[in-house]
Amino acid sequence: MKIAIVTSHPVPFALGGAENLWWGLQSAILEETDHTCDIIAVPTPEHTFAGLISSYETFSKLDLSEFDCVISGKYPAWMIQHPHHVCYMLHRLRGVYDTYAGEQLGHLEGLPSKVQSLVRWMREFTELGMDVDQAAIASCFDRLRTIELAALPERLAAFPGPLSREIVHFLDRAALAPNRITKYAAISGTVAKRPDYFPDAVDVEILYPPPHRTDYHCGSDNYLFTNSRLDKVKRVDLIIDAMKSVEADIPLLIAGTGPEEANLRAQAANDPRIQFLGYVDDDKMPELYAHALAVPFVPLDEDYGLVTIEAMKSGKPVLTVSDSGGPCEFVRDCDTGFVCAPDGAALGLKLNTLCKDRKLARKMGECARDSVAAIHWSGVQQALLQRADIKSVAAEAKSVRPSLVVATTFPVYPPTGGGQSRVFHLYRHLAQHLDIHIVSLGEKDAGKHEIAPGLIETRIARTKAQSEFERELAETVNRTPVGDITADMLIGLSPEYTRHLSYACKTADAVIACHPYLIRHLIKAAPAVPLWYEAQDVEIKLKTELLAGYGGAEHLLEHVSRLESQCWRQSEHVFTCAERDLSDLETIYGPTLAHQYTVPNGVSLDDVSFTELPERRRLQALSGMNRKKTALFVGSWHGPNIEAVERILNAADKLSDLRFVIIGSVCRPFEKKPRPQNVDMLGLVSDEQRNDLFAACDLALNPMEKGSGTNLKMLDYFCAGIPVVSSKFGTRGLRVEPDTHLTVYDDQDLEQAIQEVLSTSEELLADQINNARALVRTHYDWSVIANQFIEELRGNNALRLRPR
Amino acid sequence: MRIGVATVYTPGIYGGAEFLADGLADAIRRHGHALHIVRLPFHFDPPNAVRDSIDHAEALNFSKFDGGQIDQMIALKFPAYYLSHPDTRLWMLHQHRAAYDLFDTAFGWRSGDPETADIRDRIIAADNSALSKVEHLYTIAERVSERLRSYNGIESTALYHPPANSELFSSLGQERYIFAPSRLEQLKRQDLLLRALAHTPEDVNVIFAGTGSQLDTLQRLSVKLGVEHRARFVGSVTRQEMLSLYANALAVFFGPLDEDYGYITLEAMLSSKAVITCRDSGGPLEFVVPGETGFVCDPVPEAIGEIAAQLFADPKHAEKLGRNGRDHYDAMNITWDNVVETLLQSPQLASAVAPVETVS
């Protein structure tokens, strides 16, 4: 097996316990097994909030798929994703876990909206018990990039502080989730038992690593010796204090340097027995241990404490205290040393005992040496790599991504309408697993752009000639836009499009007709490549409603029907927004051999900000006493939406106490028509305006009675946390339940339903809102939908590579 | 021994540098050493990110700890070679070209740009200081050494490594085509060969393998020149197909502009094929012996066309040049074993062993 030990090197580089540990493990694996074992070290800055996040991201993107197994032991290295990942934990980032001292910085409240929405998004994974997959990890870094950490209020930007703590917990939880880790181990029981260090209910094997030297030995007993970095948590002051109780004239040698050195020297100034050795070369260490009588070592909650093992391997008793953590796992009181209460006098008493009874000290030292004899690298190495199911996974992991080409008659990025939004978000998430190239037709050439990681759009302008012909054909149907329908017959006038399409198809493993209109050109460009059909609607139904009755309709509709039928029958895979569309297609065009999928419409939670009910009420109160309760409707210029607006206008007549706000292009056909005083038609609004309306309105409406697909606006409402009233028809294709998620009415009772919502108690409304939001999160977030689709495609062996 | 290999890492990129680092790592493992690979995250854009990477590399001071348990460190790439280790060997792929030979070209930084002027000064100063301290300074090619000499006044030795799967190349015959494998990019100058076709008899054909930004342009050009029936673009091919295209070619054309090294020359020689290159092609000139293993032409279509026509008229001669090329390759000891042994040899040995013989 090819093994990689993955680790970070601090910038600037410092040699610590971790480095020695990995070198020791590597040597053991190389010497004792047939495996190869490399150390892969990435220097990463970890001392600032921003540096730490970029370091986490670096490891999340590191590709070690050429190895069969990776071993990690620390943040941020364990962000590495690998099918065989062994976590041998040294510790987490203690400053945001067990030694977190940011409580006085308060909780995460009063956050800027972007941060607020990020925090909520992260917490929902835990609340809803969802896995944080690789896509979600990438998304977390994307969102963090949009937040300027340096510009945050000091309280939030603090490191460690509440926000860094939240983020590190989220990322660690993702990295160390059971579905990503093959085996868990820890360097000590102390580490294994710390709260939040390991996922619930996983087995954590405790594997004590030996010191990096093997030449410890026992000599005389001339002095007391301790060895540690001189900082507060090592509590060397306790040992100096204990010397007051030691009667013997025995030196205490203290090896090590650190920030506390001056304080400690001052504390020891009056005791000539105490000597500071400063930095001691590693080669001299065994000799220092060898001639010690005993080794006091009393840190606070130490992860492991190699000093204990080094002393014991040198045949010396160790004196520690009850809250020292790691050392207490080795020192058996009165047997291999002493475990005292954490105060100087108690420790001094035991030091005194040993000074007086050197025989006892020697005996304890021998017991100590025996007790750690079993700590050696062979044991650790064998346990880490011992799994019945170990197999070489490199080949599997290294698979090449299949590549897909999608042909559309409309530009995709930036998405503004519903159809564009679907294409962009669905393919953006599929692009986590596949390479996707959209070749689209637009008004202007935009060349080839990566519009999301792995998702490319090449946009080609329709030529003047094509536009002119389109206009002529539109004249035959009362100038209804027919750019999509006519693309099949007119695309020859824009030869650049077909040229780019066939170029893109050269390396495609499958091609997708998104809408039926370019299918014939797609087949021509990629004759031997599997064809998929994305049916966003039942086009013939939609276009019939749109065009029927006009002179040129018959000819155009026949065309639609022919293309749609061809897509339905010739594709290997067909996917629609709703189950109903599949059965409609089958009714109209007969049976197909294609695999069929429902890929519901989703929402991109990043794009809509959530407003909790109390916050909504606060915002509403801000707008003053005269405020009327407000109902909102969003829609594009589309037959079923127009009818819904008419229904709203009727209701508005009767509910004059309420204000009705309608946004979107559906306002256009109403521009010149009379309407009740209490209705505002705002037309197209910016995302910001929309979000403001979403945050402050009282309820949102979906009085739809027609149309295929599902009503995406519902999901936007849910995401934003608005109480929703919908017709029964309007809930089609969504897993909503009346009262649990929203208020649903039958037939003509829109007004009554609106009043019902306005009289619902705040608790019930808050429940509905939270349920609805959770539903979106677990079922309609694009990443969930795309992942599910990918799984189904895999099940049908759709993601195979074409031989080249 | 535990050998450190310090290189840089940019997510999503696997290119020549990564291939080189992997090849070196494999060879070091084969020699029974433990590997400690340091991958320094490196972003070349925006220019300020380069500064951060330099800082991080300079902060990687293993010397302070006497190298830890890493016995020797081999640094490969800018800016990873700024790290400190008590026993450093450098095998340089290239310097930061945007600041050197690509400076003031379309591919590098521009003079007078305040954003990059400082960084460039810093890079040059850091190179001068860091590289002059390294005792064992090797480059991957004479071309890189030349630049180091002319820009920084620092001497180094070229140490050649083999292309991937070098053992699989062979000659199977002589079909009537010149093979031109390479990414289709302007700097690779496939257009020279296309234009040369217009100056050759009808029976001279070319097969281009590889894709790239110039595919459309080249295909259009072939139509314009009326040679589209003699120039085939086969796109990206599998390694197996590539081997076979080499094995059956009459000769290989590789005429890039100032290439550092260029595996294509070596692959052609391994396949016993004559190589046509240009006098400003850089790397290939280190390997092609004019008139013996191939040709070094002026970078003009007429000159290339003339050579191509000659070879098609006398396939026996082409075959002989190819065989010479293979012999020449074998004589140069271009192996990973040689790379590892040279890089890891002790200081005394290093000064005693002569550099790999190069062809002038």
Q: In terms of topology, how is this protein built?
A:
The complex is a heterodimer of chains A (804) and B (360).
Chain A: E1 2-10, H1 17-32, E2 36-44, H2 49-61, E3 69-74, E4 85-91, H3 113-127, H4 134-145, H5 154-157, H6 162-175, E5 183-186, H7 189-193, E6 204-206, E7 223-227, H8 236-242, E8 252-255, H9 261-267, E9 274-278, H10 285-290, E10 292-296, H11 306-313, E11 318-321, E12 337-340, H12 344-356, H13 358-371, H14 377-385, H15 394-397, E13 403-408, H16 418-430, E14 435-442, E15 447-452, E16 455-461, H17 464-475, H18 487-490, H19 495-505, E17 510-514, H20 519-525, E18 531-535, H21 539-547, H22 553-570, E19 573-576, H23 579-589, E20 595-598, H24 613-622, E21 630-634, H25 639-654, E22 659-663, E23 679-683, H26 687-696, E24 699-702, H27 712-720, E25 724-727, E26 743-745, H28 750-758, H29 762-780, H30 782-795
Parallel strand pairs in A: 1-2, 1-3, 3-4, 4-5, 5-6, 7-8, 7-10, 8-9, 10-11, 11-12, 13-14, 13-17, 14-16, 17-18, 18-19, 19-20, 21-22, 21-24, 22-23, 24-25, 25-26
Antiparallel strand pairs in A: 15-16
Chain B: E1 2-9, H1 16-30, E2 34-41, H2 47-58, E3 72-75, E4 88-92, H3 114-133, E5 136-139, H4 142-152, E6 157-158, E7 178-181, H5 190-197, E8 206-209, H6 215-224, E9 231-233, H7 239-247, E10 251-253, H8 263-270, E11 274-278, E12 294-297, H9 301-313, H10 315-331, H11 336-344, H12 347-352
Parallel strand pairs in B: 1-2, 1-3, 3-4, 4-5, 5-6, 7-8, 7-10, 8-9, 10-11, 11-12
Helix pairs in contact in B: 1-11, 2-3, 5-9, 8-10
